[in-house]
Amino acid sequence: MNLWFGATQGYESDHHRIDGRFKVETIAPPPALLFSFLPGVGKRWLENMAQAPHLAVWSVVLQAEAHGTVRAGRLGTAVQYDLTPRDMTHLRRGLKFAAELFFAAGAREIITNVHGLPERLQGPDDSAWLEKGPENPAAYSFALTHLFGTARMSVRPQDGVVGTDFSVHGARNFYVIDSSVFPTNLGVNPQHAIMGIAMHAAKQIIATHG
Q1: Which of 146, 172, 177, 202 has the CA that lies 20 to 30 A from 6?
Q2: pLDDT for 160-210, tens place per residue?
Q3: DSSP string of 25-43?
């Protein structure tokens, strides 16, 4: 498979972006990260590491409905983020869909990496295990990326940090122009959206101040 040759994210399927709030994409995590997720210890873990040239990794990118919080805590910044029951339903459905794609593409077996499920799936019929997996998020391996909203945009000051002109509510000439102003989770890589709002904000500021 040559996991680390070529684009790290080369292909994706967004077939279920609307009805399932997830997409499936190829990804090539660095060796240290990949090996930490492989099952087994000692000799068995080393044997699994040796199979790296034959591994492919697909991730289920979930557009979660959950809303987290970022607050000042006694020991520093406190971040809280808990997935909803519907998020977990969408996740399990996405994992099953990814497994079906793997077997359709010729995979011999799939490492589930889900606590409480079989370590490996041996064929298409085993994909059903994933949709019936644990409801507890702690049983799964997550990577949180592209988190937004710590300075969310809002019309009313009580609902956010900045107004529709990107200025901080209650302050003058103080602007926030980055992904933190997004009021919701985009569910996609935000680079183009960030560039777009930066250009829009700059035009607004120039029009206002000259």
Answers
A1: 146
A2: 999 999 999 999 899 999 999 998 878 778 899 999 999 999 999 999 887
A3: EE----HHHHHHHS---HH
